[in-house]
Write a structure and sequence with these properties.
Elements: E1 2-9, E2 12-19, H1 26-32, E3 42-45, E4 48-50, E5 61-65, H2 72-87
Parallel strand pairs: 1-5
Antiparallel strand pairs: 1-2, 3-4, 3-5
Length: 90
């Protein structure tokens, strides 16, 4: 089966196609890839988080996730505060 590995981060994008045996797991794909694996925050298949024991299917896109640069909740809170300050009556 064919699986595509993707690693995207700040200013970089790397992809690799792998040919794996049927029933291969995320851990098997990681062992077979030449993409760097240090600093990963996790893995996802088509955007759904999975663990190393997850079984892959033919045509899957395995995404190597980098750590978040900012907490999404904090970012949204800051944007809401800025928006509220703009719309307050004077």
């Amino acid at each position: 089966m064919r699986v595509q590995l993707i690693r995207a981060g700040a200013g970089q994008f790397q992809a690799q196609e792998l040919e794996l045996a049927d029933g291969a797991t995320v851990a098997d794909a990681l062992a077979a890839t030449a993409l760097p694996r240090e600093g990963l925050a996790g893995y996802a298949v088509y955007g759904e988080r999975v663990g190393p024991e997850a079984v892959l299917a033919d045509g899957d896109r395995l995404e190597l996730l980098e750590p978040l640069l900012a907490d999404p909740k904090d970012s949204r809170r800051r944007r809401a505060q800025v928006q509220a300050a703009r719309t307050r009556p004077r």
